[in-house]
């Protein structure tokens, strides 16, 4: 394992960035389609997406506390 985790760290960062991008795009799409949805459907979908973002944030915190090599990069994503 000559990379000493660099490959794994890079892949993890890429996966996290993609997940965050998907969640943010989902919120943006939801806002753009708001008028096409009934109020309950909009509120429920928004709530679910915000819960997913919260879970994502919790995962970032766990990763940051357990792997100090990722702290700086993940802190920027969390903001």
TrEMBL record:
Keywords: Coiled coil. GO terms for biological process: negative regulation of Wnt signaling pathway. The keyword Lyase does not apply. Residues 6-40 form a coiled coil. GO terms for molecular function: beta-catenin binding. GO terms for cellular component: beta-catenin destruction complex; cytosol; nucleus. PANTHER family: BETA-CATENIN-INTERACTING PROTEIN 1 (PTHR47142). This is Protein LZIC-like. The lineage of its organism: Eukaryota, Metazoa, Chordata, Craniata, Vertebrata.
């Amino acid at each position: 394992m000559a990379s000493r985790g660099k490959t794994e760290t890079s892949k993890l960062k890429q996966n996290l960035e993609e997940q965050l991008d998907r969640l943010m795009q989902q919120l943006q799409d939801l806002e753009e389609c708001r008028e096409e949805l009934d109020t309950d459907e909009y509120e429920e979908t928004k709530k679910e997406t915000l819960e997913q973002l919260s879970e994502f944030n919790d995962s970032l915190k766990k990763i940051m506390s357990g792997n100090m090599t990722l702290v700086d990069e993940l802190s920027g994503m969390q903001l």
